[in-house]
Amino acid sequence: MLRNILIALVVLVMGYMFYNTYSNYETRQELADNSISQHFAAQGAQEVGAANIVTAIVVTYRGFDTLGEVTILFLTASIIAFFLKLKDEDYNREIKHTETSELLVTASQVLIPIIFLFGIYVFMNGHLTPGGGFQGGAIIATGVALMILANPNVKLNYHVIHWVESISGVSFVLVGILGIMLAGGFLDNKIFGEDGLGEFGTLFSAGAIPIIYSFVGLKVGAEISNILNKYQKSQKEA
Amino acid sequence: MEYIDLGHIGLLIGFLLILVGFWGVLTQKNIIKIIVGFSILDTGINVLIVSLGYVKGKTAPIIDNAVAQTGYHDVSASVVDPVPQALVLTAIVIGFGVTALMLSYAMKLYKAKKTLEINKYNDLKW
Amino acid sequence: MNSEILFIGIAIVIGIVSIVLSFVAIHSEKLSIAIIAAGVVSLFASVLYLLMAAPDVAMTEAAIGSGLSTLIFFYVLNKIKRSDA
Predict the structure, then answer these.
(1) Do B63 and A29 touch (CB under 8 A)?
(2) Total domain count for chain C?
(3) ipTM at complex level
């Protein structure tokens, strides 16, 4: 009883603090003068050469945060692999499952190549349209999830997944080091020279941003597919 | 309709989702329900951050070819704030990672004691 | 001016449905309904991001928050239920 009263008190105090913030809030009419958002919006297209300002911020201006995020995803995948403790015989075991419907099996054979193609398109054009590496990687992982749902005994080639993930991660850091040698700093995108930014709005523009985002997209897709594969192989029946 | 705006509505939805998620974490007894409460809390915080970056009447921060030819100095007067969107992109992926980790802990706890009630796990209590 | 009022109306409807579904997610007895309700809250938040002119965030939330998170919840639920008895 005392516990419930204390919990209600905590929630009420938080609600009161939120109410104070809400009643003094006015929607902004324009970006503040000389703030960093105005600098990114006004100079971003000229300095970086990408049409998507959010991509320019995530890959070039705040590139270290993206490196930290990729590291956290890698840590998550390795801790899940450590907890689930699969042996080699678990990968080859066939489990009994209720029969998958014919509609799902037939439709998945048509849809899976299209989903992979769409995922690759999304992360290759991250600097021109909404999208990018994380979105494209998640779409590829959804295609792999559809493959697992259509046939729960499918044997994914986990050597390919491991090699793709490792090589993408190492290449991401190597492109960053190339930025130190040839351009302004770590993960700078002018590695093809000051005038090598290409024509604004085409596929081969914005320096190293398509290369960096492609590696990030492949790494995220391979990682999440690995997590899904491990969860599936540790089931005893479906 | 002049004093209620899309920014206000987003702020209100974010605050209410945070309160509901927090209350779910504190009062539920089943471990899976606690993890669902954490997921709603994450969603509420992300809605709050994005709605703080909304500027009235402007459009998405993507430049297409038409804007590029009229000169770059017009861009900052016609887009919403792009910095909170870049921060929320990272936060969503990290929230998914933390949820996956919590679920694998829940599986191991269930394998050890065969129950999902959090009151039965009192090994660390005095 | 007309589209502004339309967006505000849609946002109010989305907000009311999200709050009601989050209450359902916390208070329901069956675990499957709670997990699906959390997934639908995430989906409506993705539509709200689109109304607030943030298309990158909407794509990421729909793919990761709504799709993959719900899938992982159901894997763990299946493993817990099947190892009973």
Answers:
(1) no
(2) 1
(3) 0.91
At residue B71, the 3 state secondary structure works out as coil
For chain B (126 residues), the mean pLDDT of every run of 10, in chain order, is 81 95 93 95 95 86 62 70 93 92 90 88 82
pTM of the model: 0.91
CB contact under 8 A, C59 and A228: no
Question: Is residue A139 within 8 angstroms of chain C, CB to CB?
Answer: yes
For chain B, domains (ranges, CATH) are: 6-54+80-120 (1.10.287.3510)
Which contacts (CB < 8 Å, 24+ apart) does range A14-22 have? A14/B18, A14/B19, A14/B22, A15/B19, A18/B15, A18/B18, A18/B19, A22/B8, A22/B11, A22/B12, A22/B15
Is A133 in CB contact (< 8 Å) with chain C? no
Of the candidates A22, A29, A80, which has its C-beta nearest B101's C-beta? A80
Q: Which residues of B touch A130 (CB under 8 A)?
A: 60, 62
Please write the tens of the pLDDT for every residue from A96-153.
888 888 999 999 999 999 999 999 999 999 888 888 899 999 999 999 999 998 988 8
Q: Which residue of A has its CA nearest to C83?
A: A236
